[in-house]
Design a protein that fits this description.
globular; 4-stranded parallel sheet; 278 residues; alpha/beta
Length: 278
C-alpha cells in the first residue's frame, strides 16, 4: 500500500458507521491473507463467521494494492491469518499499524513449497483448526469435526488426481518456479524453471530454449498469478503443450475452492500433455 494512502484510510475510519459491519454481526471476524487461508477458514468456521479475503485469487500478493475496506474490517477483526511471506511485505505492516486493533491476533502459516499441494492443505487445516479452537472455545468441537471432513476430502481429491496423472509420469517440462512443486507432485520431470514475465530476457529465453531442446521438453507450465502466457513463446518454439496453472482458489470461473482449483490445474496439465502429443 503506498504510504500516501494511509491518511485517507485513517480518515475513513472516523466516518460515521465505519467498522460497524463487523461489530454488528455474530461469530468471529477473520481477515485471511490469501484465498488459501480463506478457503480453509470458511470450511472450518461455517456460516457464523465473517471471513474476508485480502488478496483476490487472480492477483499476485506482491503486486496488489490493499483496499480501504480491508482496513475497516481489520479494525474490528479478531484474527488475521497470513501466509509465511506476507508479514515481511511493507503494505501488510502498514495495514496492521493503521488498524490499531489491540485485540487482534495474528497467525502466520508455516512456509510451504506449494500451499496448493495436499500435504500443505492438510498441515494448514490442522494448524488453523487448533488455533481456532484455542481462540474461540465455543467452536472447538464443530471446528474439529469440520477439519476431519476437510482432511478426508483433501486426501480423496489427491488420490483421484494422482490416478488421472499417470500419463504425465516422467514427462520433461519447463515451468514457472511457483508451479515447480505441483509439476513434481504430478510426476513430471522438471528440467528448468523461470520467473515472472519481466525476468524473461532474450538471454533467459535462449537458455531455457536450449535446455528444453536438450531434454526434449513436451510441456511448459505457467503460473497464472505471476503472469499468464509467460511461457507461450517457449512452448511454440519447442512444439510443446502449454498451460496456465493457478496458485490460489478463486482465480478462474468455477474454481472457487481448493478442490475445484486443484482439479482444474490437473485438467489443464492433462490438456497441455494432449496438445503436446499432436
Amino acid at each position: 500500500m503506498p504510504r500516501f494512502l494511509l491518511p485517507l484510510l485513517l480518515i475513513l475510519l472516523l466516518l460515521p458507521g465505519a467498522g460497524t459491519a463487523a461489530e454488528n454481526s455474530d461469530g468471529p471476524h477473520i481477515l485471511a491473507g490469501t484465498g488459501i487461508a480463506a478457503d480453509i477458514l470458511r470450511d472450518l468456521t461455517g456460516p457464523g463467521a465473517q471471513i474476508r479475503q485480502l488478496i483476490p485469487g487472480g492477483a499476485c500478493p506482491g503486486h496488489y494494492d490493499l483496499r480501504p475496506g480491508d482496513l475497516l474490517f481489520l479494525k474490528q477483526a479478531d484474527l488475521l491469518v497470513l501466509e509465511s511471506y506476507q508479514p515481511s511485505m511493507a503494505n501488510m505492516g502498514d495495514l496492521v499499524r493503521a488498524a490499531d486493533n489491540a485485540r487482534l491476533r495474528i497467525v502466520v502459516l508455516p512456509k510451504e513449497a506449494d500451499a496448493m499441494l495436499p500435504k500443505a492443505q492438510i498441515a494448514y487445516t490442522e494448524i488453523l483448526a487448533a488455533k481456532l479452537g484455542e481462540l474461540f472455545p465455543a467452536l472447538n468441537a464443530p471446528v474439529a469435526e469440520a477439519a476431519s471432513r476437510r482432511i478426508a476430502k483433501v486426501r480423496e481429491v489427491a488420490a483421484g488426481e494422482t490416478a488421472r496423472l499417470k500419463a504425465a509420469k516422467n514427462v520433461p517440462a519447463l515451468c514457472a518456479a511457483m508451479q515447480a512443486g505441483f509439476a513434481s507432485w504430478a510426476g513430471l520431470t522438471v528440467v528448468g524453471t523461470y520467473g515472472r514475465p519481466e525476468d524473461m530476457s532474450p538471454k533467459a529465453f535462449a537458455r531455457l530454449l536450449d535446455m528444453g531442446k536438450k531434454n526434449h521438453v513436451r510441456m511448459v507450465l505457467d503460473n497464472l498469478q505471476s503472469g499468464p502466457g509467460t511461457g507461450n513463446g517457449l512452448a511454440e518454439s519447442l512444439g510443446a503443450g502449454h498451460a496456465d496453472l493457478t496458485s490460489f482458489p478463486g482465480a478462474l470461473p468455477g474454481q472457487d475452492d481448493w478442490a475445484s482449483a486443484f482439479s482444474g490445474n490437473t485438467q489443464n496439465l492433462l490438456n497441455a500433455l494432449k496438445e503436446a502429443g499432436k
